[in-house]
Input
Amino acid sequence: MLKWIKKGLIFEPTSNKNWMHTHASLPFADKIEGDVYRIYFSTRDVKNRASLAFIKVDIRNPKKILYLVKKPVLSPGPNGMFDDSGVMGSCLVNYKNKKFLYYTGWSVGTTVPFHWSIGLAISDNGGKTFVKCSDAPIFDRSDTDPLFVASPTVILENGIWKMWYISSTKWKRHGEKMTAPYQIKYAESKNGIAWKRNNIVCIGLCDKEVGVGRASVIKEKGIYNMWYSYATNRYKIGYANSKDGIHWNRKDRLVGIEISKSGWDSQSIEYSFVFDHKGTRYMLYNGNNYGKTGFGYAILEKNVDAK
Output
């Protein structure tokens, strides 16, 4: 069984900036050099629109912030665009001296609360800033994903770009509230831009779950390992593994990390991002209220095979 040791909160946003008023959600890390990393996260302005920002840390002591970006590195698009209500970063792929940033674009709905699509922005200056590759999403609604697509996790393996993303097929009304139960699906690409999907569900919903999403995937010793968020009445972090990246075995009971009894992650834990550095496995994750209390980290105590 895996066992994660919680190390505490890394970053909580202050409300003294209009563009970073609340939240530090969906953290993910990118190595700069040595032990120094950028940790990207999505933050919300005074109008509740998400933008992408980052901090710079020494991963050996990430609670000490070396640098906080002065302005967003990716912002919502103009009115009418698929991302005019917010951009939420999800993952980054290093490719040919460029950084491919995959993100969720938000637009506000009328008959439903929102629409989600997947966009791509590219950096050619080491991740300091990003330029959107298109005014339109690169991955949008389709016959197999009729409502929305979001939270992409992409890895490049042997010339094949592999994406795990969330999708839903039906909005449901609960009194005055509407929800769209979502699950994790799979797609492939030859260039990271044009994607082929075959309606492949990797992690579906169980029992009374209302959502399974934001995958983090690592391939190790020929086995794909995935950490994700799943929710009934509150979010927890789950775990699954796979031999081919398509057919997965859920093993949530082996995940080795739970909601805390008190503090910033005492109501929920979600949006994990797992990565390795010099023999140590790290997990970045959000706590209460989808990142309103910021993000923290945990370290894997014993990296053993989960069975």
